[in-house]
Amino acid sequence: MKSESDKNAEKTACILCSRNCGLAVTIENGKFTRIRGDEEHPVSRGYICQKAARLEHYQDHEDRLRHPLKRQPDGSFVRVSWDQALDDIAHRLTAIRQQHGGQAFAFYGGGGQGNHLGGMYSQQLHKAMKSRFVYSSLAQEKTGDFWVNGRLFGHQTCHTTEDVEHADYVLFIGTNPYQAHGIPNARDTLRELQKNPDRTMVVVDPRRSETARQADIHLQIKPGTDAFLMLAMLAIIVRGGLHDREFLGQHCTGFDELECELLAVPVAEYVQRTELAAADVERVARGFATAKTACVRIDLGIQQTLHTTLNGYLEKLLYLVTGNFGKRGGNNLHTFLLPLIGHSDERNPKYPRTARHRMFPISGLYPPNILPDEIEHEGEDRVRAMFVDSANPALTAADTGAYERSFGKLELLVVVDVAMTETARLAHYVLPAASQFEKWEATGFNLEFPENAFHLRHPLFVPLGESLPEAEIYTRLLEKMDEIPSRFPLLERIARLEPSFSGHAAFLAALAATLRRKPRWQPYAASIMYRTLGQSLPDDASAAAPLLGLTTAYAKRHAAAVRRAGHQGNNLTLGASLFRAILERRAGTLMSVHTFDDTWSLIRHPDRRIHLAIPEMLAEMRALGSETPPEADYPFILMAGERRAYNANQIYRDPAWRKVDRDGALRLHPADAQHLGLADGALAKCRSATGELQVMVEWNDNLRRGTATLPHGYGQRYGGNGPFGPQINRLTASAHCDPLTRTPFHKYVPVHIEPVLS
Ligand SMILES: Nc1nc2c(c(=O)[nH]1)N[C@H]1C(S)=C(S)[C@@H](COP(=O)(O)OP(=O)(O)OC[C@H]3O[C@@H](n4cnc5c(=O)[nH]c(N)nc54)[C@H](O)[C@@H]3O)O[C@H]1N2
Ligand SMILES: Nc1nc2c(c(=O)[nH]1)N[C@H]1C(S)=C(S)[C@@H](COP(=O)(O)OP(=O)(O)OC[C@H]3O[C@@H](n4cnc5c(=O)[nH]c(N)nc54)[C@H](O)[C@@H]3O)O[C@H]1N2
Ligand code: SF4
Ligand SMILES: [Mo]
């Protein structure tokens, strides 16, 4: 039976990582008084981790922004009205566009871990600016993966997921789900895996991570050598005839070419480079290939280190070559409702390259590693104006110093955030967004298959001060830029007249007719729906209005899957019925139930096959082996950005939220620490070719000798004090990145460590 407080609980979700676990919360006097996992959430079903209980520290703290702010010549900020701020920004943006064209504008961000609804509105701004230069944190971790997907499956939006819950054999490479999550209900899922003797869990990690400690087999690999390991495994599989010939023949092309390369792999030599035992590698390769079902789950440990893109290719080959794809317990393609990423094949010249680095976008995104150079570039075609929304690149992108310097050279920098961040301090204008618990909000991290869900969250608090939802901020800005009028009388009338949820067919038809008549407005459908249909939605859910367009398109493409999820309607009304369910069900909605057979229709190559041979990757495979050894001046490999119990990107700013590890310690193997004369708790200097930090040392025998780790998500100022904890990107370098995708090698930063002499 539900207790009284559960009955009064409001439904929402955690916004701290991509799992977005459902929450049932109690609110009293404008504060969270109880935060629990919501058993009614279709995916998390009651699960949460220790970080969610602290959400009051996100919602209410000293550095929340209350009013629009304008920076003064002396660096201080004064309060201005929304009209003052937006009039001036609109004026300056249109002047820059007129004088320098779209290339002068860049956008950074577009949603963090929990807020992607605003992205539908902010993306209208780059369209208004005629710019395609969207920089994003995804392009400092996942674009290698997206690029490979584009080649394998025919489109960069073909994103895969892994059915860890049902696999007999799970290979975790470079990821620590116990702390970082990333898989459904991570700790429960890991426990299930561990306690079932018929299932095997393998962790490849240079560190005996919390996940590795639960594994059947831990391969404590030498950092940066995963490509050698995966190639050796693939070679063992193919030579042993353990590949799935039937799957390869039926669903793939290019295996012959790939097989030739794999047969040439010097297995023993490659295994030696990983510093693993040959018998262990052999056992894992054979175990993975012969398991009834197997899947691979990877993350930053191979995405932010040497050979990033090749790692992404090889990891996928492991499950493809063994036929663990498109089936229960394997890796699978999934569908999106909110399109988080796009497609931009660099072989097509229509996707513009940047001025300085001639860098192409991947999935429509440009990498943060090149941005300082694109701003500081001498040419007329440099980046001059920027919006940063839902990101804090001054701390999270490589080379903090380069960001501070280059952002200082922008003619206009506007930051949209809930808090006064390090990036906001560099801005000309800081615009206060309502928090994720003060507005209608949702994420696009719905990456499940075959069942997929969507959670639209309703507001729990009134917006703080004068803060506004992004929907309103960007719509007002477009109005002030004269891109759209503020009223659409005909559409407003139709939206009002239409009996609630009759399928919204009349509204969509009228909208389509309007946009045909005024093609200039086509990029702004989201804001137009917000101002029209939005006004007639219940509970002020106006910001959710554009979801009707998305549910309509989704239901058209995946009608059977949407119906299997229990939504009803004909060709015209199914999308509206999904929209209505999303609006009404506050705990989240099952939106689709696919079948594994749908997999082949999700592949976008016209032949519906997986194209295994990617020439660039085959060439990189052949060139592997000629590595330069680490420099003598920097003998340690620093993993700059570990996920720990109390870090959560830049989302919490008040250091009081952390129950442990307030200093964000530098972890070091005790033997290394002793050798350097560093006691547990001592102060050390950690120096890279880019910069230097003073850090506190923590002895930790889970590390490999010769490696050190620092946590991600520290270094914020708070309440006028700080920084609290290490600003790790003072150590990282813009050029230290994957040559193809320009994603950083944050997990492989050569450093020198020495005691601080007092
Ligand atoms: N607690 C917490 N959870 C988070 C976040 C957070 O800030 N805090 N952030 C979220 C975000 S944005 C992301 S992207 C994910 C990231 O999630 P993960 O990638 O799982 O987390 P990390 O700790 O960054 O790195 C994973 C592991 O890679 C290992 N590793 C380092 N170098 C190598 C290598 O050369 N080879 C191999 N095989 N492994 C290596 C590290 O030891 C580490 O255990 O976490 C999300 N979840
Ligand atoms: N060295 C090193 N650097 C790293 C990493 C690493 O491992 N090592 N990890 C990288 C990875 S994987 C990631 S994902 C990035 C993360 O870094 P960022 O992309 O910079 O994103 P977040 O830390 O998620 O910051 C989210 C911002 O959004 C704000 N915010 C919260 N809610 C709202 C809202 O409703 N509206 C608006 N407008 N703003 C809001 C928060 O106050 C915060 O400033 O860091 C990357 N940087
Ligand atoms: S941090 Fe991630 S795993 Fe933990 S409760 Fe929040 S969404 Fe769930
Ligand atoms: Mo991330």
TrEMBL record:
* Record carries keyword Iron: yes
Q: Which SMART domains does this UniProt record tie to the protein?
A: Molybdop_Fe4S4
> Known SUPFAM superfamilies for this protein?
ADC-like, Formate dehydrogenase/DMSO reductase, domains 1-3
Give one Pfam hit by family name: Molybdop_Fe4S4
InterPro entries reported in the protein's UniProt record: Asp_de-COase-like_dom_sf, MoPterin_dinucl-bd_dom, Mopterin_OxRdtase, Mopterin_OxRdtase_4Fe-4S_dom, Prok_molybdopt-oxidoreductase
According to its UniProt entry, the protein's GO biological process terms are: cellular respiration
Task: Note whether Oxidoreductase occurs among the keywords.
Answer: yes
Q: For this UniProt entry, what's an example GO CC term?
A: membrane
Residue span(s) of domain 4Fe-4S Mo/W bis-MGD-type: 7-63
Any one GO MF annotation of this record = molybdopterin cofactor binding
Keywords assigned by UniProt, alphabetized? 4Fe-4S, Iron, Iron-sulfur, Metal-binding, Oxidoreductase
Q: Which PROSITE patterns match?
A: 4FE4S_MOW_BIS_MGD
User: Where do the coiled-coil regions begin and end?
Assistant: none
Tell me the PANTHER family matching this sequence. NADPH-FE(3+) OXIDOREDUCTASE SUBUNIT ALPHA, RESPIRATORY NITRATE REDUCTASE
> What's the protein called, per UniProt?
Molybdopterin-dependent oxidoreductase
